[in-house]
């Protein structure tokens, strides 16, 4: 395989069920990638600040595709980004308030400098959000935010997940809702996803998508898995992703992704 870029989803793919990975093994893999001229990217629905913290000790060797494809950053330089204007996200919020499945006290906005929730936020949702996001700030109104916003994130119940996602896609102009795993939904600009971001990244790096290998497990990985030359899925991936994969590897809890990377 002529591989120039390896990209991996995080939760359910690269990370185990505890949200962890073997740092020593990754460092060794990245040293080998350097020698072979292979870039490494993490592609996640997680926020940029959260990913940078997670990979702090190897940050200079990692390309970050964050916010479900809303931003691509490498060594502190933005290679691609798609932000919502203030008027856009305030209008989108007014639509979301009318959704029968959305609880505005379980809603988070992710920006360049931090994340934002209403000061009436549900404490359980806030605790959950802190597992995946950094610098969460409470505001009395979304109109008080002065940051550039990438996306909304909210939680539905397992029973309302599909219906809630469909409602947002039908009733909120200019956005796309996608499941990120568990009961979380990301709401991004309608032209944004990991596939769009990785296409922009390949162009910035001067490589072909046929030279990109990507690991993914969930529907927010679908377009990324479609456009790359070598889509690989862990055995725990959703059926739609398994159908796209050229190869299926072990369960994410067995660190199958890093094992595969060690063999490249």
TrEMBL record:
Q: Which GO terms describe its cellular component?
A: cytosol
What does the record give under GO molecular function? magnesium ion binding; phosphatase activity
SUPFAM superfamilies with a match to the protein in the record: HAD-like (SSF56784)
Which NCBIfam families does the protein's record reference?
Cof-subfamily, HAD-SF-IIB
The name under which this protein is listed is Haloacid dehalogenase
Taxonomy, top ranks, is:
Bacteria, Bacillati, Bacillota, Bacilli, Lactobacillales
């Amino acid at each position: 395989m002529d591989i120039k870029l390896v990209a991996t989803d995080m939760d359910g793919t690269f990370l185990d069920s505890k949200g962890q990975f073997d740092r020593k093994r990754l460092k060794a893999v990245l040293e080998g990638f350097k020698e072979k001229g292979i870039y490494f990217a993490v592609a996640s629905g997680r926020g940029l600040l959260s990913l940078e913290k997670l990979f702090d000790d190897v940050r200079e060797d990692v390309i970050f595709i964050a916010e479900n494809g809303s931003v691509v950053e490498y060594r502190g330089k933005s290679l691609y980004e798609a932000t919502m204007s203030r008027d856009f996200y305030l209008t989108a919020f007014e639509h979301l308030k009318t959704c029968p499945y959305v609880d505005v006290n379980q809603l988070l906005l992710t920006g360049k400098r931090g994340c934002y929730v209403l000061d009436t936020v549900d404490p359980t949702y806030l605790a959950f959000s802190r597992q995946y996001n950094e610098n969460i700030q409470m505001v009395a109104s979304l109109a008080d935010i002065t940051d550039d916003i990438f996306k909304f994130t909210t939680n539905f119940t397992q029973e309302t997940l599909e219906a809630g996602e469909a409602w947002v896609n039908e009733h909120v102009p200019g956005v796309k809702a996608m499941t990120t795993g568990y009961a979380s939904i990301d709401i991004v600009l309608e032209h944004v996803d990991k596939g769009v971001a990785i296409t922009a990244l390949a162009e910035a790096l001067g490589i072909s998508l046929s030279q990109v290998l990507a690991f993914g497990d969930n529907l927010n990985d679908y377009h990324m898995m479609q456009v790359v030359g070598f889509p690989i899925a862990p055995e725990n991936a959703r059926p739609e992703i398994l159908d796209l994969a050229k190869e299926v590897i072990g369960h994410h809890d067995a660190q199958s992704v890093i094992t595969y990377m060690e063999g490249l």
